[in-house]
Amino acid sequence: MLLRHKALFRTCLLLLLYSLFAAACTRHERQVRRGMYYWKTNVTLSQEEQAFLKQYHCEELYVRFFDVDLDPNTGRIVPVAPARIDLTDSALNIVPVVFITPAAIAQLEQNTIAVLAQNITGLLQRKCTEAGIVPKEIQIDCDWTASTKEAYFNLLHHLKREAFFTGKQLSVTIRLHQVKYIVKSGIPPADKGLLMCYNMGKLRNIKEENSILNVATAQQYLDNLEHYPLPLDVALPVFHWSVLFEKEQYKGILRDIDLDRLQDRQLFQPQTSHTFTVVKDTFWNGFELKKGQWIRYENSPAEDVQKLATFVAEHIPNDSLKVLLYHLDQQNLKNYTPDELEKIFTRF
Fold it and tell me: Each residue of 13-49: pLDDT tens digit?
């Protein structure tokens, strides 16, 4: 009897060791390419930004080329706000990104989709030619819903038929709710998706604590991640902003404001560690502020980003993927140590 128990124990131990070894091998064999988003109007890499990309072995740069939005004068849906692109680093794989606003996709009608696809393609091709970029992938960034998926998916079909898209991967951004409510949201007709692991809270709700990142919320939305049918890349946040409210109503986002800028007691009265009341009317850092307005500072704590990265890495089934950080900007990245940033990438 004792010998049987010992044999059973050895068998269980061997199975456990084999499982751990297999898991370690799987993690080791996963191919990970590193990259960054670049979300600015003037696309020119500073020496510091170039050094950052080299230091962290980032090969991918996802660049916002332009938006698609409603023209306020005509009501037509058109490409707007094109970026000025001046990139000379030939070692980088540049992925053009086109952002389609929720307002535009909500107003998109079936009889205008073909023309919009041609307009998007025409501007993309022109800007790529001017910048000397021959992309292998093009990304469409759109937060579609159940009510807008038909028009959006039809637009993707039309884009794929355009000659400029031939031989290129078409990727789309995937929000957390589109993973959780997969039946209602549908699967976009694209070659792959990029899972956006940020902007997951209710930005306009004054009771929200941090709309950028909440690990518990993300885990709830991604409990079926391994079953998502599109291959996925991953983007994680390394940014901050301040959200402005007036009489509990959302007024906008104050960008490029570090927490230490909000410590000025002549302008701001702290309510908590991350919320502040404006104490007098002022024009500050390019923003017009009024007495009584309320500011909520939001960021992406390194520990939380690493924790979320670990969760996603354990649940995403890909053998290979890209891991991106949003986004490449000195004001964002100075809030992290090199070790903290490296650990985000190495979680995968």
Answer: 433 333 434 444 444 589 999 999 999 999 999 999 9
Alpha-carbon span 166 to 227, nearest angstrom: 28
Dist. CA 106–CA 100, nearest whole Å: 10
Q: Looking at the chain, which residues constitute the CATH 3.20.20.80 domain(s)?
A: 25-238+299-346
In the structure encoding, which two tokens stand for residue 246, read together?
Answer: 């007036």
**What's this model's pTM, rounded to 2 decimal places?**
0.91
Largest CA-CA distance found in the chain, in angstroms, rounded:
87
CA 130 to chain centroid, in Å, comes to: 26
CATH number of the domain at 25-238+299-346, please?
3.20.20.80
pLDDT in tens, 257-277: 989 999 999 999 999 999 999
Cα gap 195→309, rounded to integer Å: 12
Q: Are 239 and 332 in contact (CB under 8 A)?
A: yes
169 pairs with which residues across the strands?
A: 137
